[in-house]
Structures are given as C-alpha cells and as structure tokens.
Write a structure and sequence with these properties.
The protein has 142 residues and is of the alpha+beta class. It folds into two domains: 91 residues, Glutaredoxin (3-Layer(aba) Sandwich), CATH 3.40.30.10; 31 residues. A four-stranded mixed sheet has the order 2-1-3-4. α2 links the parallel β1 and β2. It starts with a helix and ends with a helix. It comes from Methylophaga aminisulfidivorans. Keywords: Membrane, Transmembrane, Transmembrane helix.
C-alpha cells in the first residue's frame, strides 16, 4: 500500500490519532486524553523500519511539522503534544456527546408534558370528561 494511502487510513482509524516514536514523551498527552475520556490510537513510527520512515516522510509532507508526536482529531492535524493538550479540538468530541445527551434529556422532559396535554384535551370530550380529569390529577400526583 502506498504511504499516502496508508497514512490516510491511519489518520481516520480513530477519533483521535497520535503518531509517535518509541522515544516520544507521551505521559502528559496520555493523561490529558484519558482525563477527557477520549478514545485515541497511538501509531508508532520506528525509524529503524523503512516502511515507518516512508510513512513519517509522508506525514511531515502532509503536516509541515517535523516533530513527533503529531495529533489528529477527526482527521484534522492539531499539532504536537503540547498544542493538542491546550487545544479546544480535544474537547469537541466530548462536548458533542454532552450536547447530544442534553438534547435527549430536554426532549424527554418535554415528553413528560404530553400526558397532561392529552388528558386536558380528553376532558373536553363529554363522555370522557370525568375520567380525563381524574387521570390528569393522578398523573400530576406522580
């Protein structure tokens, strides 16, 4: 597989992808990612392997950044380890989850109003009036 194709596949392999070498200092970056509950994948590029060297050359050409680690979020290059730690881009996958959860909770809250609306509308139907009023009172008591 060509290095550019392989690099593209690796960059898309996880929400956050970190390219590193065997000697890259990763402790701070790992802690930051784990503290934010972000799923990430580490890709090790060993300079002793010709395929890894070719991949690293392709990576440098793509990012115009010559150091490791190099961090990609959702396929977009963010920078090195320090830049990634201080980047808002690492917060966005987590915030998207929170935003979706907040919307779901809000919708479920509105869904709780539906029985009141239904029972109130049924109260206007003469044959179901007493039952609907009692049902509205009972639902409100819960």
């Amino acid at each position: 597989m060509a290095p550019e194709t392989q690099l593209k596949n690796l960059i898309q392999s996880a929400p956050v992808v970190v390219f590193k070498s065997p000697v890259t200092e990763m402790d701070a970056l790992r802690r930051a990612l784990k503290a934010r509950d972000i799923v990430f994948e580490e890709i090790e590029l060993s300079m002793g392997d010709s395929d890894s060297r070719a991949l690293f050359q392709e990576l440098k050409q793509k990012t115009r950044y010559t150091f490791l680690p190099q961090v990609f979020v959702e396929g977009t290059f963010i920078g090195g380890g320090d830049a990634a730690i201080h980047s808002n881009a690492l917060a966005s996958p987590h915030k998207k989850t929170n935003l979706a959860a907040k919307k779901l909770i809000q919708l479920l809250g509105y869904a709780g109003v539906l029985p009141f609306v239904l029972f109130t509308l049924l109260a206007y139907v003469t044959e179901l009036r007493d039952w609907a009023i009692n049902a509205n009172i009972a639902y409100g008591a819960v």
